[in-house]
Amino acid sequence: MQRTVTQHVDQIGKWLQAYMLEAARLRLGSRVLEIGSGGYNAALLTEVVGPTGTVVSVDIDEDVVDNARRALAQAGYPQVRVEHADGDNGYADGGRYDAVIVTVETSVL
Question: For this protein, what is the EC number (predicted)?
Fold first, then answer.
């Protein structure tokens, strides 16, 4: 099933997104990995880290990745790297990160 950006936001709650962004203590120029794409949260992260920062968003579901890429490009965030990958062990291809934000449901921590 394909999720929309709105469904993703509703799923985790806007208050939780704000809390995660604040807890990550991101600043201009930060490098951040988001595990679980949807688009909206990656756009928020991009606003926080600014033009010198990096946002890499990964998701295991190819449909979610395609949807996030389209939504981010349409919303004016083509600089966000959205990758089709299993974020279970992070995502080393993006280099070192200042923060990792997980926006997916998991049954095992």
Answer: 2.1.1.77
What are the structure tokens assigned to 91, written together? 């995502």
Q: Do 54 and 26 form a contact (C-beta atoms < 8 A)? A: no
Per the DSSP assignment, residues forming a β-bridge with 90 are 88
Bridge partners, 102 (sequence order): 35
DSSP bridge pairs for 59: 84
Is the pTM for the entire model greater than 0.85? no
Q: Is 55 helix (H, G, I), strand (E, B) or coil?
A: strand
With CA atoms as reference, report the closest residue to 29 among 14, 12, 48, 13.
48
| Of 66, 10, 86, 83, nearest in space to 41 by CA | 10
3-state helix, strand, coil in the chain (%, to 5): 40, 20, 40
* Domains by residue range for the chain, with CATH: 5-102 (3.40.50.150)
| pLDDT one-digit tens code per residue, 42-89 | 999 999 999 999 999 999 999 999 999 999 999 999 999 999 999 888
